Each structure stands twice: as structure tokens, then as C-alpha cells.
């Protein structure tokens, strides 16, 4: 599979999981509504689950963008090489060997 397809698949999986959490919360609401503590636990659990899935999806988005950025910085196989090597840790160019 292509990376973008995998990324889309991950996003869809997290979306489906979010809908699942909401449906389970709706089903549980009847019992939980009898106690303020159960309401707080139900809402807190559903919210943290959804936020957690969003954070995981966001981490994949960040990784994807970093990979795309790094791929754009790499020279293509047929491109001429620079006569100067990448900068040293002090950010000063080093002469080519």
C-alpha cells in the first residue's frame, strides 16, 4: 500500500473507533444517568478515549509531514552533488573531501 493510503486507513480507523465510543456511551446513558458519579465517569471515559485517538492520529499526521519534508530535501539520484558537504554542528560548511 502507498503511504498516503495507509495514513487514510489509520484516520478512518480512528474515526470508526470514535463513533463506536459515542454509540457505547449512548447505550450506557440510561443506567449512568441515575448517578452523578457514573455520568462523570461515562463522559470522562468517552472524552478521554476520543481525545486519545485524536492524539494518535495527529502523531501519524506529523510523522507523514516530516517524511514528506525529508523526502523533498533529499537530492534525486541523478542530480549533481554539491562541492560543499552539509554544515558541521557549528553550522559552518565543510569543504568536500
Topology of this structure?
Blueprint: H1 3-32, H2 36-73, E1 84-85, E2 94-95
Antiparallel strand pairs: 1-2
What does this protein look like?
The protein is mostly helical and 97 residues long. It is 70% helix and 4% strand. It has a two-stranded antiparallel ribbon. The protein is elongated. The mean pLDDT is 81.
Brief account:
With 97 residues, the chain is mainly α. It is built from two helices and two strands.
Order of helices and strands: HHEE
Specify Rg, calculated over alpha carbons. 24 Å
How many beta strands in the DSSP annotation? 2
Distance between the termini: 40 Å
Helical content band: over 70%
Strand neighbour order, sheet with most strands: 1-2
Outline the biggest β-sheet: 2 strands, antiparallel
Shape: elongated
Classify the beta-strand content into a percent band: under 5%
Pairing-aware structural class of the strands and helices? mainly alpha
Amino acid at each position: 500500500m502507498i503511504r498516503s493510503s495507509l495514513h487514510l486507513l489509520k484516520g478512518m480507523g480512528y474515526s470508526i473507533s470514535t463513533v463506536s465510543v459515542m454509540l457505547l456511551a449512548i447505550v450506557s446513558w440510561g443506567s449512568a444517568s441515575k448517578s452523578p458519579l457514573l455520568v462523570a465517569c461515562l463522559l470522562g471515559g468517552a472524552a478521554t478515549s476520543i481525545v486519545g485517538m485524536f492524539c494518535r492520529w495527529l502523531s501519524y499526521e506529523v510523522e507523514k509531514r516530516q517524511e514528506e519534508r525529508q523526502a523533498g530535501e533529499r537530492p534525486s539520484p541523478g542530480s549533481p552533488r554539491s562541492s560543499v558537504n552539509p554544515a558541521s554542528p557549528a553550522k559552518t560548511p565543510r569543504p568536500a573531501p
